[in-house]
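Hi W.,

Here's what went into the run:
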Amino acid sequence: MKIATWNVNSIRTRQPHVIDWLTNNTIDVLCLQETKVIDKDFPREPFEELGYHVYIYGQKAYNGVAIFSRQPMTDIIAGFTDVVGEEIAQNFDEQKRVISGVIDDIRVINLYVPNGASVGSEKYEYKLQWFQVLKAYLDNLTKKECHELCICGDFNIALEDKDIYNPKGKSNHIMSSPLEREALQNILNIGLKDAFRKFTTEGEYFSWWDYRSGGFQRNRGWRIDHLYLTDKLYEKAINCTIDIEPRKQERPSDHTPVILEI
DNA sequence: ATGGCGAATGCAATTCGA
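Here's what came out:
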């Protein structure tokens, strides 16, 4: 089975790219971020025609997540509130950033982590607080269920310096600051491992390149899209790769897909 | 580098992303 994650930066703009990629790759579950569309306007049909079940949680203009699955998923949960309650969820579900479902006794959790703007900004604080809510969400879920977990998506965090094209001067940069890394590590400490790092230990592998200043052409990238797995699933993983082909195309997303094979 | 590029909104110019 292959599970992939891809921040498409608008599903309506990227529809042909996603159709093309799913046609040329055998993907069982695709987690999308930044769909940027309300649910009633989501282009479901083209993906259903490809044989996918479509699960969506979107909003106008910003954010938005979706899961496409060849087999039907069960126990779909959109947002934090149903898991953590209104008191802990506060207003964090106003931004649509989390959807999950179960397939083959794996709960796939699709995340679009806030980007955080710049270190010390209000959005940075929001990003750190969002991780507190995510922690409660995972704690509650793991109390209720005993599925293996695949937590994937756009984390907007490079956990190690080797995940950045040039880490010099980025020790307090957004996506690599100590508090962000600590917040993500705190999540991973419940027992999650980076699928990509099971197979590849060296640097210079990236999943996002800035549109500006020829980021992709100069390979100025960051590895910020991840698939994290609980132990049994991690042991079962047989590959995890980044496909840079979609990033080479005309009018691409600034992210490219990461694919896990189990 | 307070910029570079791209998407959405909505129809010009602004906000947001990372």
